[in-house]
Amino acid sequence: MTSSPPFPANPSPLGTRPERIYAEPMGEMNFPPEIRQWIAARLAEGYADEADYLAELVRRDMAHAAQPESPEEIAWVRAKVEEGLASGICEKNAFEVLEEIRTSRKARRG
Fold first, then answer.
1. Is 52 exposed, middle or buried (0-12, 13-18, 19+ CB in 10 A)?
2. Which of 29, 31, 76, 96 has CB 3.0 to 4.6 Å from 92, enough for a Cys bridge?
3. Do 24 and 8 lie in a common domain?
4. Residues 57 and 34 grouped into a single domain
5. Are 103 and 56 in a shared domain?
6. Single pTM value for the model
7. What is the 3-state composition of the chain as percent helix, strand, coil, each rounded to the nearest 5?
8. Tens digit of pLDDT for each residue in 3-53?
């Protein structure tokens, strides 16, 4: 006897609602009040129910996990971190830096 898989072979694109195929119920989940409030707000935006919202989060996580960073992306980030560390500490505050950037951009535009 062959049973069907708990998830479709080709998952639906994010933001769409695929047919639900569950192997077994997962039971009750308890969340702190701030998470329950967040879920309630998301339900008001168009999700059918809590399971629909949580299933979408899991699908997004699965899609993200299926596309890990490439060695080139990791090397780029590491190089940028090294560049930042080698550049030293800026003694200016953020407002001074932003003003310098604005002035520089205005000068380039002419």
1. middle
2. 96
3. yes
4. yes
5. no
6. 0.43
7. 55, 0, 45
8. 444 555 555 565 555 566 655 666 788 889 999 999 999 999 988 888 889
